[in-house]
Amino acid sequence: MTAQAPDQNVVEEEWDYLIVLDACRYDFFAELYDEYFDGSLEKRRSPGSATPEWAAKTFTDHADVTYLSANPFINSLGIPLSELKWGASCEYEWAAADHIGEVVDLWQDDWDDDLGAVVPEAVTAAARERLDEDRDDDGMVVHYLQPHAPYLRRGRGRKLERIRGGVLEPDEEPADAGRDWPVVDSLRRRVERRLGESQMAMALGMLVELNLGSVLDVGNRGLRETIEQYYEENLRLAMEAAADLATDLDGRVVVTSDHGEAFGEHDVWEHHVETHIPALVDVPWLVLD
Question: Which Gene3D superfamilies does the UniProt entry name for this protein (predicted)?
């Protein structure tokens, strides 16, 4: 039996800069990291299987850090996760502004409207700007959105747009609420032949992010093979940008993740709160040389 990885404890660990790659699985990272980083890699067990759970269980008291966040769930607005209408799916009465010294809202300031995401290069640029400022904190967290969907070369972030809109305007319906996605619907029967009904909603949640050519790839090659390829592409983009930033960082630098991503393991796709399967809670902990 494989031993369980030690717990990830961000607050108790020593670091000057913590680079968080959102939704980064340990196994994919382990295969690729030495193309971008030099360091000592360990597997850690995240306290959460989605960003809201990870944040609420990680920053339980008050951490005097600067947190550059490309993820809308970690924001400076003081809205408890339990009050967000779209995406949080939890009862955590946690708000980042109550537990983190300073949150920089990259998800708002550096949002790409065409992609429905914050691209890795924008996060790196924002972090570099902060390096030139006088700061009085115990460290900096740089939270990249990738490899989390949307897959930047394959579609756009329709679900993230909903989440972001729900943070900015909690009581408003998103513009695409109730909209049908005819391309996705046309592939429903083909995908259903491969997946059980219980997995269908989760799988379709991935398909709505894709452009037409990518959806056709799914129909021709299968969902898992296609999504894993796109996920790796996103991960490489994030690692390249993070490695570029790391060259400017002095002190102890750690690369980790908030949670992983599931590709059908245990009949789970994507990531969901309190779903503690290895694909979602096994994350990297890389201390850079």
Answer: Alkaline Phosphatase, subunit A
